[in-house]
Amino acid sequence: MDRFELRRQDFSLDEDQKALQTSVAEFFAKQCPTGTVRAAEPLGFDEDLWRRVLDLGVASMSLPEARGGDDATLVDLVLIAEELGRAVAPVPLVGHAVATRLLARAGASDEVLAPAARGDRVFALAPAAVRNGRRQLVPDAAVAADVLALSGDKLALHSAAGPAPHVANQGSTPLAWWAPDPGQERVVLAVGDEARDLHRAAVAEWRLLTAAALVGLTEAALHLAVEFAKTRRTMGVPIGTLQGVAFPLADVAIAVSGARNLVWKAAWLTEHEPGSRPELPLMAFDYAVRTATHGTTTSAHMQGGLGFTAEADASLYFLRAKGWSLLAVGPGENLQDIGDLITGTD
Amino acid sequence: MDFGTIELTPEQQEFADEVRSFLDALVTPDVLEHERAHGDGFNERVHLALGSRGWLTPQWSPEDGGAGLDPLRRRILELELQRHRVPDITAGTTNLVWTAVDRFADPSLRDELAPRVADGTARFCLGYTDPEGGSDIAASRLRAVRDGDEWVLNGAKMFTTGAQNCQYTFLIARTDPELPKHKGLTMFLVPLAAPGVEIQAIRTFGGERTNAVYYGDVRISDRYRLGGVNDGWAVLHGPLDEEHSVGTASDGLADPSVGRSFLRPLEVALDETLAWARETGPDGSRPVDDPSVVARLARVAVELEAGVVTPGPMGRVKGSLAIVEGAAELLDLTGAVGLLSPGADGALGDGDVDFAHRWAQGTATYGGTVEVFRTIIAQHVLGLPRAGYPGSKVLM
Ligand SMILES: Cc1cc2nc3c(=O)[nH]c(=O)nc-3n(C[C@H](O)[C@H](O)[C@H](O)COP(=O)(O)OP(=O)(O)OC[C@H]3O[C@@H](n4cnc5c(N)ncnc54)[C@H](O)[C@@H]3O)c2cc1C
Predict the structure, then answer these.
(1) Domains of chain A
(2) In this predicted model, what pLDDT tens digit does every residue of A259-277 receive, in sequence order?
(3) Closest-CA residue to B122 (of B56, B66, B78)
């Protein structure tokens, strides 16, 4: 890599992107107050909200026009995911969008793709390759009967009669144990290297969109803490005047601003120059995960004992910081993937 | 949003090639060797050569001694200067100070200095930091007392980097100790050749040379005052905001982070460590065969990448943190071999990891410490309330 290469470094949004960002932000602010988030616990799925999200067209918009989409880019998707994260919205958008795009990229028939693009059913992606038919935790599998998985050298869509049983978890997400069932209906989408490459690209997209969601989530948590610090007082002054409070919050702001830019850059390059920096989406994920972990901890802590109560909204962000991060393959494994790419030791 | 490469027109390409071959010839190994040994942040031969091309003030028109470069050509030049590791500290401080000279200097002084800034014969350093403390610039104590058409300066400044290679220092002085502290300050452009100025070298463990500058009954003409008497705080603000990167709009080409340059030595050190990790070591194995090594290298690379994109004043803190933590981690990975000095038997590259770790520490301090920047972020980005200390600025 030429570290002095002449490239644009334009982080600005165009009018369409700004309009998209604003409309999605307004949508979630209105349709998904924190009460809605709590009401959807412990499953983490609000079917009503999901319908309304689908009505916005966000599940299919990033499909090619020829496949019933709007050719929206990965950049549009990360903008949407960030707003979803800000609202900690209990909808399986990230996994579903990634699965839908994977189906399209694998050249699935219209018959297979259409229900995903329309959102008739929720589709999920099994993040890890299936080994010896062993079960794995699959995000959204408690609300999705259709799971895309890589087993052996085949990428296939497995459709069961219904979703798998929910397992209670820290982030209140629709997580479930899932394993391919020999009796299930199975559509093979790709085999061999193609199957592996498609799966790897989808997992990278999952991590990137999750990173975007974590940026929004962390910024929302930070915002709560900042507002608290402006009014909460100690020894006659607002706590926000104390450097012991202000500096940690400034550090969260630093991390959030960098994580967002890293997500945007990774999304743009993945979209427009696929393969040029394959490590970037994974780097964005690693950084966003740490930003969320540290940022939500700090934000809760700066609200003192109140921030530690289940009742405080700070808890919603804290519990999902890890609750969302660990779904698309653990960050430890992600770090190994980055290392393999930068050292060339795949 | 756009992170793409830029297709150059034949003329632009010709310019890029010209810059590159000019710098290839100009920045000889002895320039880099001198910089490593002395840490001047300046090389006179290189500086004057750049001046002869108008490249010290690239945006100025050729009539004014510049090169009339558009933003794209300026960016090409900037990247090539970085690629060639041109010592640029004094060029940078000169540019910062020029904004204030341009706006506030007596017109005859301004007109006299403009062509010399462009050709490289007039150079400016920053005389902000007092021996008693630099973060609180407005607490500056160095005294300037009026005597007819002259001012008499007495006191000292610490860390006037580049003073040994500059003709003038941009000095903040106390002209009225009775007024509230932000109000009794005046800025001067002090000729360093004036009798009574004494420059003493200070070395850092990062390899830089900076200076303590003593002023003993230094008499300068009122002509060297910038802006109004006791109006120094306003004069200082332009260059200071620029140094802090407050309120600068992006043209889509510039680095988003003010701390971008902090990361250059980390890049070199990381690439050096990656090369080391791929080599077979004394025990017959390669460090990259150990997954924990790979993961730790990955983490440093992520921090570097995050530093590159973190915007504005946030990027200043992040850039510093990334190299401070990253270089230490790279040393821990390489082990003792990373500590070897350049030229020592078995040293890694040019001792790049050793250098990055030492040099990194200064990034947390100069140009405003990371604590000063966290204060700026807390107040101006997050909108947190300002603390009321005895020395806080009184706005009314
Ligand atoms: C290599 C180098 C080159 C330099 N070049 C120049 C130059 O060219 N011109 C120039 O004028 N100066 C220069 N400086 C000086 C630099 O700007 C100062 O060192 C810096 O502003 C800090 O001032 P100080 O060293 O006096 O530390 P102090 O201000 O005394 O600070 C000591 C410690 O306290 C912390 N601190 C101070 N105030 C606060 C606060 N309000 N809130 C929280 N923490 C605080 C600081 O962050 C620091 O960690 C240079 C310094 C170095 C190391």
Answers:
(1) 197-343 (1.20.140.10)
(2) 999 999 999 999 999 999 9
(3) B56
